[in-house]
Structures are given as structure tokens and as C-alpha cells.
Write a structure and sequence with these properties.
Blueprint lengths: L9 H30 L5 E11 L3 E8 L9 E7 L4 E3 L2 E2 L10 E6 L3 E2 L5 E3 L2 E6 L2
Parallel strand pairs: 3-8, 4-9
Antiparallel strand pairs: 1-2, 1-6, 2-3, 4-5, 6-9, 7-8
């Protein structure tokens, strides 16, 4: 009636499934790595906890304490959040009103830190990430 098709050995099936799984894992790894690198600003970062925040019309003044793990940047820091400063939380956009006292944040800045008797001023804040 027709030609008989022979069955493939079991090891060929296992090898094909293993190759497909390996290709999917590698694709997921490189896609995630690319997305993580795209979201990371290329500026210095300081981690801290919000101690005080004062909202103004188009900006906010934030005072944060530096982390204990960073010996060079312990103490209080203050910076101004302008209306166009990007704020994110787990990759999603957030508003300055989402920031609350006690939140953990990461501040990316490109300016200077002016050291003084009170909270040190961080200038040219590029982005803020809410870590909670």
C-alpha cells in the first residue's frame, strides 16, 4: 500500500528535546540580560532610606540617610526631585507622590556632593529607583 516509515531511536528524541530546552534557556538569559542593562543608568548610585520629604508644586526636596554598608557616603543627603526626574519602581514609572518616609531608594546622580554641616547636597540627580 505505501512505504513504511521507521521509528526514530529514543536517544534522538531526547537529544532534540534537550537542544530545544537549551536554546530556550539561552534565549531567556540573553533577553533578560539585555533588558537589565537597558534599564540601568550609567551614573554613580547611592542607596539610602528617605528620612524626610517635602513636596512643592513642581519638585520635591528629599532628605535620605546613606546606608551603613557604604563607609564613604554615610550620613544625611538631600536632593531636589524635579518634575522631569524619572522615578521607577520595579521597572514601572512612579510619581514623586509615591515616595514616602522610610522607603529604600537608589539615587543616580551626575553632579557633585557639597559636604557641609547639615545634610550634604547631591546635585544633578538623574534618576531615582524606589526599592521599598
Amino acid at each position: 500500500m505505501g512505504t513504511k516509515i521507521s521509528r526514530l531511536p529514543r536517544w534522538v528524541f531526547v537529544a532534540v528535546v534537550a537542544l530545544v530546552c537549551l536554546a530556550l534557556a539561552a534565549g531567556g538569559f540573553f533577553a533578560g540580560r539585555r533588558r537589565a542593562n537597558d534599564q540601568r543608568p550609567a551614573y554613580p548610585v547611592r542607596y539610602g532610606v528617605i528620612e524626610d520629604i517635602r513636596f512643592e508644586e513642581e519638585s520635591a526636596q528629599v532628605i535620605m540617610s546613606g546606608t551603613v554598608a557604604d563607609a564613604n557616603y554615610k550620613g544625611l543627603f538631600q536632593f531636589h526631585l524635579e518634575e522631569d526626574t524619572p522615578i521607577s519602581w520595579y521597572g514601572e514609572k512612579a510619581a514623586k507622590e509615591d515616595l514616602q518616609v522610610g522607603d529604600d531608594i537608589a539615587v543616580y546622580w551626575g553632579g557633585e556632593i557639597s559636604w557641609g554641616a547639615g545634610p550634604s547636597e547631591m546635585t544633578d540627580v538623574k534618576a531615582v529607583r524606589l526599592l521599598r
